[in-house]
Design a protein that fits this description.
Blueprint: H1 7-21, H2 26-37, H3 49-59, H4 64-78, H5 82-101, H6 115-122, H7 128-143, H8 150-156
Helix pairs in contact: 1-2, 3-5, 4-5
Length: 162
């Protein structure tokens, strides 16, 4: 079977160019490009809950149904190993649903702290550093949702290394 490596990157760029030319909204163009660019992941049952949450974050919870459709279409397009690919997708869908029931933080705005807290702890002005610290805190929380308390996150801020 032939494989076009990195086709997702090239295809996403092509879709963006076509959608811009056809005057689709920026939001729709970015959503479609994100789906195309992120559809080539290989799910294994051994993924941690954190890995599943990172996938959901990368795709966007609001885009999951579209991603499942794209993955099914991609599996049908490949033809070989169709049953296994579709079974794997069903398993991932069940896993994502279970992880989403945990109501864990997937966005910076879901954190128990915000930019004002970061600026106060680090005694720094608003700027990119604050955003980088919040992103780092989110990475910690995605791996371990129990860290998403104000007290624990305030304690982690000085150790974010940015």
């Amino acid at each position: 079977q032939r494989t076009f490596y990195k086709h997702e990157k090239i295809s996403a760029e092509m879709a963006q160019a076509i959608m811009r030319r056809l005057r689709f909204s920026r939001k729709d163009t970015e959503r479609v490009a994100n789906l195309i660019e992120n559809h080539m992941f290989h799910y294994e049952p051994g993924w941690t809950d954190g890995a599943v949450r990172r996938l959901v974050r990368r795709i966007g919870a609001e885009n999951l149904d579209d991603m499942w459709c794209l993955r099914r279409a991609d599996a049908h397009g490949r033809g070989l190993g169709l049953k296994q690919a579709l079974d794997n997708l069903k398993q991932l869908q069940r896993r994502v649903a279970a992880v989403m029931q945990q109501d864990a933080a997937l966005k910076v705005t879901d954190l128990a702290v915000d930019g004002r807290d970061v600026m106060q702890v680090l005694d720094c002005p608003p700027g990119p550093r604050v955003g980088r610290v919040l992103e780092r805190l989110l990475e910690f929380v995605i791996d371990d949702p129990s860290l998403n308390t104000r007290e624990k996150l305030l304690g982690l801020i000085p150790n974010c290394g940015v």
